[in-house]
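Good morning,

Attaching, inline, the backbone tokens for the sequence recovery test we're adding to the shared suite. The designed sequence is right after.
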């Protein structure tokens, strides 16, 4: 009975990894290569710049690599903690962009990127299962210390990037410097 349950769990992880990884990889290749109707580096860089992520080109490359690279590695089940953390970090940036529109995707909210980020993080934490390249390589890239390092590194990077974006957007909107907030103490 336990063997049957483990087999089902491993199959479930395989399906979840491949599905989530494929969706993330597709989104990343839109940013990196312009595939599937995406903007490529140039178009995505301009969009990133307009959203407050500067420099735009580097932001597009980072987001594209986090999504495409993290997604591909998740699908393969290789370096699963780093893959999940990278994808979750990229999705944290997307959540920050969509948050002002609320939760639900139908109104432009952050529901979809949050779901992808949480799913990628959960896979990174749970591990890839037996049907994975991590398992085939003896979990060489899936060690307990890599889980902590990957998620701490991704969380710090996401916090810095999103924080810089929020600060830049606040400065552009005249917030935090006495302009435009009704505080006339000059």
């Amino acid at each position: 009975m336990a063997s049957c349950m483990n087999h089902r769990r491993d199959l479930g992880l395989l399906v979840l990894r491949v599905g989530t990884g494929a969706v993330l990889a597709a989104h990343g290749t839109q940013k990196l290569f312009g595939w599937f109707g995406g903007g490529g580096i140039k178009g995505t860089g301009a969009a990133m710049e307009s959203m407050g992520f500067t420099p735009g080109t580097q932001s597009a490359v980072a987001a594209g690599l986090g999504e495409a690279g993290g997604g591909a590695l998740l699908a393969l089940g290789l370096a699963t903690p780093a893959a999940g953390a990278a994808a979750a970090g990229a999705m944290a940036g997307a959540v920050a962009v969509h948050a002002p529109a609320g939760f639900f995707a139908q109104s432009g909210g952050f529901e979809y990127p949050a779901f992808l980020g949480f799913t990628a993080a959960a896979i990174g934490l749970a591990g890839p299962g037996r049907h994975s390249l991590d398992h085939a390589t003896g979990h060489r890239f899936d060690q307990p210390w890599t889980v902590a390092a990957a998620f701490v590194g991704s969380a710090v990077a996401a916090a810095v990037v999103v924080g810089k974006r929020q600060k830049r957007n606040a400065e552009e909107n005249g917030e935090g410097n006495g302009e435009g907030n009704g505080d006339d103490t000059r």
